């Protein structure tokens, strides 16, 4: 309800003027299609947070409206954003984060574009943030330890999905029925990124203040150490930048400030997490869990027993048969059964079905999830596909660096297309230092094993003189090999070479033959040459 400040009459939340006395009401709630807004919960860098109900499902939750500084709301309720904001990027982040399903992570139900801006509909968590919890006076070392262990399991899960939170602080952790819940993933990025959207003094690690330094799980753990320090002392730790410029940079100085009755395990967490040196910080959540004698809750990547593997292999063969018979829904069902039991081939094939939308909805986010399951298990085709998804930003953030990492893993297992991609990236200097010679060597490795695209790229290298002296006859040789292996653009290039005489002879009849073969096979650019 929107209470009139003059007469106290309850009004509709969207009302502009009081129905009783006509007075202008303060901060009327905007009308947002599909949602019934109840009240404003707060506002911040992302925008405005409302308590709302989804009118389609009846579900009550938190609706975050992207309304950054400088935004304006028009009379019709739509939002005009300042220049420079990419809604697709905002929505892509939200959709990826919506994949998280963990008891200590605030669930994101939907993310969509409405009214000229973006909306995230999140789980409504009843609870107090850790700053309020500290001031309530209920914290004990035992409760702090319990909160910390739950947070470590949550971070273990987030990091296993390839993400970093990057804004851990007491205000972004709610305590609900004794369970901490991580909220506000607005600053989250892929593991290995080199940029941070926001810094919070006292909790942000030194690498978050500098461009070019790689962010990792160690960055989140620095902030986690700061949270523990706050819960034990009630003070925000000194900024890492201030510490870097001070005389005493050792984390032991922070440990000395902890209460005398602080358990040694919590002292170790502050000592190790808040070290200014990245190599001295923990690299994984299990390292910190081991301090308390606790193991990760994530399933270990162990191979199933031979009996179980045999059953999963049989299910995989039945799924392949269903796919061959174009019974895609049945194939998807069987692949998912196998994938959930750790069968890598099933996870890979299920990812492909999501890629092409066969038997399931076309969904790059689902593809990224299942490909990731297979790729982390060592499946080379899945590792290549993860490289492709990261390169084009499908189902995840676009990250050339992550793309190179996945292509390298696949190439190490002999995946020829991954070798070819790595070669081209070295030629272009994308995600790696530009090195045409290294690019040529990588592509040649794949070409010598009869990979058509690599053979074509060898032809282009000799035709254009990249890494080698220009040599049209060698270019023709590689184009012929690629064409024999079904490469259509190689046929097109051969047509051009016979027409120009670079093939050693001008032969318009042969030229037309190659153009025609390329066009009939589906290479559209060849049509204009006929």
Q: How would the blueprint of this fold be written?
A:
Elements: E1 2-3, E2 10-11, E3 35-43, E4 47-54, E5 60-66, E6 72-73, E7 79-80, H1 87-97, E8 108-114, E9 117-123, E10 128-129, H2 130-136, H3 141-160, E11 163-164, E12 173-176, E13 179-182, E14 189-190, H4 217-233, H5 240-245, H6 252-256, H7 264-273, H8 285-289, H9 306-324, H10 328-340, H11 344-356, H12 364-376, H13 380-392, H14 400-412, H15 416-428, H16 436-447, H17 452-464, H18 472-484, H19 488-500, H20 508-520
Antiparallel strand pairs: 1-2, 3-4, 4-5, 5-9, 6-7, 8-9, 10-12, 11-14, 12-13
Helix pairs in contact: 3-4, 4-7, 9-10, 10-11, 11-12, 12-13, 13-14, 14-15, 15-16, 16-17, 17-18, 18-19, 19-20
At the first level of CATH, the class of the domain at 128-292 is Mainly Alpha
Placed side by side, the strands forming the largest sheet appear as: 3-4-5-9-8
Give the rounded overall mean pLDDT: 86
> Can you tell me the residue ranges where pLDDT is under 50 for at least 5 consecutive residues?
none
Strand content: 5-15%
GO molecular function: ATP binding; protein kinase activity
Domain Protein kinase: 35-293
Organism: Deinococcus cellulosilyticus (strain DSM 18568 / NBRC 106333 / KACC 11606 / 5516J-15)
Protein name: Protein kinase domain-containing protein
